[in-house]
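Lecture 7, part B: from sequences to assemblies.

Below are the input chains for today's worked example.
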Amino acid sequence: MNGADAMVKCLAAEGVEYVFGYPGVAICPFYDSILQTEIHTVLIRQEQCAAHAASGYARISGKVGVAVVTSGPGATNLITGIATAFADSIPLVCITGQVDSKMMGSDVFQEADISGACESFVKYSYIVRNAADIPRIVKEAFYIANTGRRGPVLIDLPIDVQQQTIRHFSYPESVNLRTYKPTVTGHAVQIKKVITQLERAKRPIICVGGGVHLSGAAAEVIRFIEKNDIPAVSTMMGLSAIPTEHPLFYGMVGNNGKPYGNRAMNNADMVIMVGARVADRSISQPDLIMENKILVHIDVDPAEIGKNAGPTIPLVGDIKHVFEEFNKIDFKADYTDWIDQLDGYKDDARDAKRRRMFQREEEILAHQKDLTGINPVQFIRQLSLAMKEDAVYVADVGQNQMWSCSNYVARGGRFMTSGGMGTMGYALPAAMGAKVAAPGRQVVGVCGDGGFQMTMQELATISQYNIPVKLVILKNTVLGLVRQYQHYNYKDRYSVIDLGSKPDLSLIAQAYGIGYLRLDNSLKTDSTLAAFLAEDKSMILEVDVDRDELC
Amino acid sequence: MKRIYSILVENRAGVLCKTAGLFWRRCFNIDSITVGETQDKEVSSMVIVSSGDERTLEQIEKQLNKKLDVIKVKTFDESESINRELLLVKIKYNRGNRRDIMDNCQIMGARIVDMSRSQMMIEMCDTPERVAIFLDALKSVSIVEITRTGILAMTKCNETV
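Predicted structure of the full complex, as structure tokens:
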């Protein structure tokens, strides 16, 4: 048995079913050994997408996603995908081939110091020097990736180590890391403090973040808010943890969030941040959420607590565990007045939105506004209602993401996007990974024509491996969000945002053997969506959106 | 505010780089950094002196604790610890100032460890403040080269351990 055999045996022992990757000489022993196992391989078309696909897979399966690429450019191409996963705390194990360890450091062909380059985007990284260490390292890597605050782990594997003979192979049953012991159990005293404060509070609100998904705690959180009638809001990463129409849910907060969600946060006297980083997109002025408020911050990563805002009650622990404890405690509190107040905010906002929509139509009819094509706000709503209830919705980055997060209706499905890094081109490969993880679920990716062109080569992958992903392309022929920024901040002085009308998406679809539909008339939205979503096969839906649409 | 971090790390390749890289990436200051072995050959000791506001200093500790190569972080003020710095300084001397320099060395507890016809090298191991005072006293002479180790620190002895 050699190092590569040991590596694939370890992956099999970890229950890995899929490896997304791209071979090259430096990782060839690995790809030779993997043929002996049951592990499926997916040949992606550019390495960045291996990490994105693994990330989509991890988000839906709850398991660690695995990407395996070669040394040098293969490894450096992977970096954006690793950084994207790191920003959203997605558990990945990324294995990179490396040149012969005796040659390392001498700049030989396809050598890159990938562990050095990735240092600030990985939870941990290994350079394997000795094949005998492989079982321990793989065991540790999977453990580190999928415990505590999740994140990517890199294993750099020189080719000679892959070829080295191992005499005895045994996969360790447990890890022994003296430097890594994540706190899972919430401190009983802190839990008690939170409940005591909740009893005193008049206007509490729970803000759920991406950590709720990572911990698989949505059911526990919903049980807690229902049991105690506590209203909740969500960050973009936390979307779909609570159904949109839940009576206690008041939308997404942040600069692209619902006005009533933000008002709810501002007027609360107690804010409970759950698995959220208090980052700049959702809380623009962290100091303000401290003002006249009790701030509770629950996170598995102690370093997140107090990083952006110092909480009144810090609570380190896994959210699922913490909410299981919360749910065991009965306490009395009445927030009826507060909920009435929040419902009032919601009605105000809905009236305002209706007025805006009405005004928009009026202006178009009166030719004051020359907007053609489909109204993306309405379209996203209709799309998410036409999708199956448990469907996965993957939003890309840009205007499409803003329209998606504020108009997607969660009904038990899953919303995911590159929230932290904002990586354009994420939707297609991540949707591919999600579909691989859950072949029985409908998976819809939504992107713009800019993001689509960043990773459109993966159409070949979904076509070749028959991974039936639905892809909506909101085509407005510009980099919409940058254009919008230039509209507001540079007074319509547009610079380098025009994508032109190419490519012809119908021909692209045809070239890859994928179904194609186009929507340019809002009267046909429902029937087109029905046709688009009808069968479980890959389909591209091109949606004409006017370049002047703002989000 | 100044703070001393005494860190025990796994003695593995790249640990210094990873730890120092954290300071770089998170925009934390490093006033000084020293690395050396401990009684356990698998463990290295790092002493990093940093400065910043309270939230930054707390973040440094938390982020250090998050690093998977970090075994233990102790943080303290200068007043809670014994601090030492080693200085080597090479100066030019002449007959006129030779006596003066020797007096200064004697007063401050520094030692002349090497000399040639025109140069001498002085060694001093003391608190950072006293090292600074000594260097100030040498201002009038021509300094060829200075090297300082940065602070080594250990918390004061304590009965309760």
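Note for the exam: The radius of gyration of chain A is 24 Å. Keep this in mind when comparing with the next example.
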